[in-house]
Amino acid sequence: MSQALIDEFSKDEYASLSDQAAANVVNLKTVVIRVWVDTADAITHATQEGYYAVLKHTSESDPPDQSSQAFQCWAAAKNIIGFVESTKTKKIDMDSEGAIGMKMAMVDCGFATSSQVASLDALANRTLRWVDHVSADTQSAHSVRVIRDIMNGATAKRAGWTQQNVDRYNTTQAAIDAWNHGEPDLVI
Questions:
Q1: ∠ CA(163), CA(168), CA(170), 5° rounding?
Q2: From CA 132, how far away is CA 168, in angstroms rounded?
Q3: Looking at the structure, do residues 40 and 24 belong to the same domain, yes or no?
Q4: Does the residue 135 lie in any domain?
Q5: Does 104 lie in the same domain as 46?
Q6: Which of 43, 77, 86, 139 could anchor a disulfide with 23, C-beta 3.0 to 4.6 Å?
């Protein structure tokens, strides 16, 4: 049993939900995680946004006077193009110090706007279902019931309940859930 599921179903937002409703909510919950970006995707983005050509042109031009700001931007463009065109660079960690520095240089030197760089950075965002993120698979009413039974058992131990009390509570809760989900002939 996943501790992540126990922790999740212990939250107040699930307390008043039936087992099926809790399963539905947790199965629909999403998280955004950061992943490394394929270099080809970053180049495609830069090309479509129009700043790849500017970087490429700048990096291939003659270097300006080394004491000028233009030299710093030329060096940044050479560094960025050299990095993304390297055969060793397959994926980019957009959160690394190097990538952050390159993104800042693109804005500071006017190669790209801050919104273009934010859009580039967003390529690293992936939305996943929470249950997949915690390796729990899709939850059913039954799996929620099992988790709640485990949670109720721990609560019962703290409260000094006997196993008979726990079983009676779990049976009653299961009957209530069944009645809430389409068994109108069930009498409680």
A1: 95
A2: 33
A3: no
A4: no
A5: yes
A6: 139
| Amino acid symbol at 144 | V
Which residue type occupies 176?
I
At 129, list the tokens. 């279902």
Following CA atoms 54, 59, 65, 67 in sequence, which dihedral angle do they give, to the nearest 10 degrees? 90
Q: Which tokens go with 64?
A: 């300006």
Q: What is the pLDDT of residues 44-65, one digit of tens each?
A: 999 999 999 999 999 999 988 8
pTM of this prediction?
0.67
3-state secondary structure of 61: coil
Q: Of the candidates 63, 93, 65, which has an alpha carbon nearest to the alpha carbon of residue 76?
A: 63
The one-character DSSP state at 63 is P
Token pair of 182 as six digits: 């389409």
Residue 41 and residue 106 in one domain: yes
* Under 8 Å between Cβ of 10 and 151: yes
In 10-96, which ranges are continuous DSSP H helix? 19-28, 39-49, 51-60, 69-85
Q: By residue range, what is the domain housing residue 149?
A: 3-28+140-180
